[in-house]
Amino acid sequence: NLANAGLARASLMLGNYTDADSYAAAVPAGYEYDAVYSTNNSNQNNDMTVQGTFTNNRSYTIRNTWKQYIDTLTGYMRDPLSGVDDPRVPLGHDNNNASGRWYGADGISPFYSMTKYIDLNSPIPITNKAEMNLIQAEVAWHNGDYPTAVADMNINRTAVGLPNLVVPATNQQQGVLDMLLQERFATMFAQGDRLQDIYRFGLMASRVGTNRPLKLPLSYNEEQNNRTIGPGGGKCPGRS
Q: Please, what is the end-to-end C-alpha distance for the chain in angstroms?
């Protein structure tokens, strides 16, 4: 199952849409493969929890452009497609600034705690069937089959109690793409997929800003350990 999920993701990124659809369909309902953490010692802690929750370092948060959608009383982001709180995107802070934690570690940026991983041993999904449903939805979108794309997205939404999406009456290609990007954001929130989506759909300049790195550079260790790259060989692929 993990091999099929990985092949589905890789095929999608390579534009091999028939293969992506086939591999994604082979992953069974309910499947999930997690990165597992522990409280045995700090090296085994979930660093997303350490860095991104109000109980710890508060060193990163979401971009302030999402502020309009955050319901700070319930602790969730509202689904922009329906206006309903999305349980897949838990965000919060200690209301009324009771502990002085309205801001992040810099003391300036409004801080919204990443409560998806609230505990030091919270697992992080590496992949799951929900991602596979979205891969199949994207393949359908590329094929111009918008009803199937929306139906695949609705599988995930129904599972968490969100209202179903419908195919827009006009401008269907862009409308369904906007739904797909939002569903990928919410389903795989805080799992490290958003930057790749923004990059591959050419949205870095409009969504993040101009003159930004299109991707994060490779780490020195990765350069050093990869014989085909070598130290100093990991270059930024460009700027927006």
A: 36
Q: What is the dihedral of CA 45, 196, 62, 234, to 10 degrees?
A: 70
Q: Which range among 24-28, 220-224, 233-237 has the greatest average pLDDT?
A: 24-28
Which of 132-147 are b and which e, b meaning 16 or more Cβ less than 10 Å from the residue's Cβ? Answer: bbbbbbbbbbeeeebe
pLDDT at 96 over 70: no
Residues written for the chain = 240
What pLDDT sits at residue 97?
Answer: 61
Provide the CA 145 distance to its chain's centre, in angstroms.
Answer: 24
Residues 231 and 38: their CA atoms lie apart, in Å, by: 33
What backbone phi and psi angles, to 5 degrees, belong to 148? -70, -40
pLDDT at 61: 86
Q: Is residue 50 pLDDT above 90, yes or no?
A: yes
- Cβ partners under 8 Å of residue 105, min gap 6: 57, 58, 59
Instruction: Compute the 3-state secondary structure of the chain and give helix, strand, coil in percent, each to the nearest 5.
Output: 45, 10, 45
84 token code pair: 């309903």
Structural element, H or E, at residue 53: none
According to DSSP, the β-strands at 124-128 and 113-114 are unpaired
State the Cα torsion 23-29-33-36 to the nearest 10°.
170
Q: What are the residue ranges of helices labelled H in the chain? A: 2-14, 17-26, 47-52, 129-142, 146-159, 172-187, 194-200, 220-225
**Matching residue, tokens 């971009």:** 63
Please name every residue paired with 114 in a beta bridge, in sequence order, or none if there are none: 91
